Each structure stands twice: as structure tokens, then as C-alpha cells.
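Lecture 7 notes: from sequence to structure.

We start with a single chain of 147 residues. Read the sequence below before looking at the structure.
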Amino acid sequence: MPNDLIMDLSIYAPKSFSDPKWIDQYIAKMGESEFWLYKSKVYNLLDSMEVGFTLPVTAWAEVWNYDLFIKIACFYISESDCCYSINQSHTIIKRNFDAREMEKTLTLLKEERGYKIPARDGRGTERKKRGSKTISAPEPAIQSKPR
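Now the structure, written as C-alpha cells:
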């Protein structure tokens, strides 16, 4: 762990989240199924972290695999709505909070304070009543290969 404070793995961070060419390069290098399997393992690892816990990158990723691990982790973190963070040297990942639990807590607080919370049926009914268009959500940046 003390070496994590000295190391700088930020060189492996993706340059841009809007241009993930590195994904195609890794798929060509390791095969599509292996890439998606590894991506799933990293996502599952980060998903299983408890709030407040930290993950030293060097404890999980192999030296030869820092590049791929950090790129995938950075994508996961960018999609997490600040639930996770990574330090400046990209050696420590921390789970800050659980978005679902935070949403439940905020809903309870709003109800407690008398805010009217519109009912949702998952089909945008509330928006349609107000006359707004329903816009479908964009596809995520990284998708798992369908089985």
C-alpha cells in the first residue's frame, strides 16, 4: 500500500470518454469475449465495494494490466454519478455513497418536509400530463456483449 502513494498510474486514464477507440484496440488484441468478460469482472468488483471503502488498484490489477483496468474503472466511475472517485495518481478507488440509498433518503426527506412527489409508472406518464415530450435515454458508453 505505501507504494500506491508513490506510483502514478494516471498515464493509463482514458484521454476522452467520447472517443473510446481503445476498446476496439483491446478487443482486437485479446478477443471480444475476453474483453467483455474482463470488463464485467471490473464492474462487478467496483459494484461490490461497500460505501466508504477504498480499493488499491495495485492490489487487484496486475502490473501488465494496469492500462486496461484503469480505463475500464474510469468509465465505470464516470457513469456512477459521483458514487465513486479515483485519486489523482489513479492508484486508489473509493466508493463515496450508494446512489439508490441516497435517492431513497432524499425521497423520505422530501415526504417528511411535505414536498409533493409525483407518482411514476415508468412510462413517463407524469411528463405526458404536463405536455412535455418523452425522450428515450441514450445508450451507455460501454455495453456488455449480449448472450
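The helical segments are 2-6, 21-30, 32-47, 57-60, 66-78, 99-112, 125-130. Keep this in mind for problem set 3.
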